[in-house]
């Protein structure tokens, strides 16, 4: 029996066509909207998106549906819910996700209950009568780790489905569906694409692909052909990029922690260290730390780039709240990053 391929190998090989003489090794860019005999990309999908969906699906362990952005992917999950459904969502995390949930609640589309999803007992207590538990782990920007296995099991016992945004971890470090989640969400704009040159989202599930496909067609939240092509190309180097980036992050977090409050699950004293060690295959490349003059630090860096977003080969820093900096650690030499930080601090 053939051994199951490891995630790093799947990232490089999944989504390729059969090895036929004369055929291209890499799936080509397919900029097409319609096909012979009435096929239409919005309705049936496209061979330009299919290789990426196949590759992400193989990594996540389900069927992946690609969308035009991470927010489009999150919106699609919410669209699968019946009107008036109770949703338990994070009280802290990505601001655009929380504002989307709040807008749905204000419009009467859902009943929203906000909780600290790192508090397992409180989160599960809130799940009574809920249709969906929405979790972001590791969370933005404080890299908090939810007890995903317990949350999934407990939410299911209470009749709630679970959607998880695992963008900070990527499918290499956290296989969400294997922990029991119903929806695994990735903003492929970030680590999967890896080069700050595309916007794309993906939702993977084992039972909801048909519903998600229909929502994508109905709302028109389609990925672009070029974006899907670039995201798949980025995925091929994700194992190497992530290995370097999280090794750099570990070094920077350890050094920063000598003089600053640092949020990084790879530090033994971090609140999420035990959970990340148990539930993930690495601690990731995202960290946050406190500094009284955060804006000035952003102005002083020269190797690290002051810019939004995360997950690229280049290190990015941004003030996320007064006195709080979020650092997406890239693949530069770690000593150049540290020299730059020391000067800026």
Topology:
Blueprint: H1 7-13, E1 34-35, E2 39-40, H2 41-44, H3 50-60, E3 63-67, H4 70-79, E4 85-90, H5 95-106, E5 110-115, H6 120-126, E6 132-136, H7 148-157, E7 161-165, H8 170-173, E8 183-187, E9 201-205, H9 209-219, H10 225-256, E10 262-263, H11 273-279, E11 286-290, H12 294-300, E12 305-306, E13 316-321, E14 324-328, H13 334-344
Parallel strand pairs: 4-5, 4-6, 6-7, 7-8, 12-13
Antiparallel strand pairs: 1-2, 3-9, 8-9, 10-11, 11-14, 13-14
Helix pairs in contact: 1-3, 1-10
What's the name of the CATH homologous superfamily of the largest domain? Type I PLP-dependent aspartate aminotransferase-like (Major domain)
Task: Indicate the mean pLDDT.
Answer: 97
Helix and strand run? HEEHHEHEHEHEHEHEEHHEHEHEEEH
Structural classification: alpha/beta
CATH topology name of the largest domain, in short, is Aspartate Aminotransferase, domain 2
Record the strand order, biggest sheet.
3-9-8-7-6-4-5
Per DSSP, the total helix count is 13
* Sequence stretches where pLDDT stays below 50 over 5 or more residues: none
The percent range for strand residues is 15-25%
Tell me the radius of gyration. Answer: 20 Å
**Overall tally of structural domains:** 2
Instruction: Report helical residue fraction.
Output: 25-40%
């Amino acid at each position: 029996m053939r051994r199951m391929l490891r995630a790093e190998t799947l990232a490089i090989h999944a989504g390729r066509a059969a090895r036929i003489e004369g055929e291209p090794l890499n799936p080509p860019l397919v900029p097409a909207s319609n096909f012979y005999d009435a096929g239409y990309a919005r309705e049936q999908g496209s061979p330009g998106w299919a290789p990426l969906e196949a590759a992400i699906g193989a990594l996540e362990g389900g069927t992946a549906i690609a969308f035009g952005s991470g927010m489009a992917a999150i919106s699609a999950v919410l669209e699968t819910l019946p009107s008036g459904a109770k949703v338990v969502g994070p009280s802290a995390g990505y601001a655009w996700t929380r504002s989307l949930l709040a807008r749905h609640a204000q419009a009467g589309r859902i009943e929203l209950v906000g909780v600290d999803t790192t508090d397992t007992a409180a989160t599960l207590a809130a799940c009574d009568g809920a249709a969906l538990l929405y979790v972001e782990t590791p969370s933005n920007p404080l890299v908090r780790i939810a007890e995903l296995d317990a949350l999934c099991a407990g939410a299911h016992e209470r009749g709630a489905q679970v959607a998880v945004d695992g963008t900070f971890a990527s499918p290499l470090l956290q296989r969400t569906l294997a922990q029991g989640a119903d929806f695994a969400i990735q903003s492929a704009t970030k680590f999967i694409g890896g080069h700050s040159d595309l916007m794309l989202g993906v939702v993977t599930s084992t039972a909801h692909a048909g519903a998600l496909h229909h929502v994508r067609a109905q709302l028109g939240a389609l990925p672009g052909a070029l974006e899907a092509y670039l995201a798949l190309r980025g995925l091929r180097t994700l194992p190497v990029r992530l290995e370097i980036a999280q090794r750099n992050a570990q070094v920077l977090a350890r050094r920063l922690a000598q003089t600053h409050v640092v949020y990084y699950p790879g530090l033994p004293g971090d609140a999420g260290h035990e959970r990340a060690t148990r539930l993930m295959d690495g601690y990731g490349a995202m960290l946050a730390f406190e500094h009284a003059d955060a804006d000035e630090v952003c102005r002083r860096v020269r190797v690290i780039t002051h810019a939004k977003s995360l997950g690229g080969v280049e290190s990015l820093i941004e003030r996320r709240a007064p006195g709080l900096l979020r650092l997406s650690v890239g693949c530069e030499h770690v000593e150049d990053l540290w020299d730059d930080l020391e000067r800026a601090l």
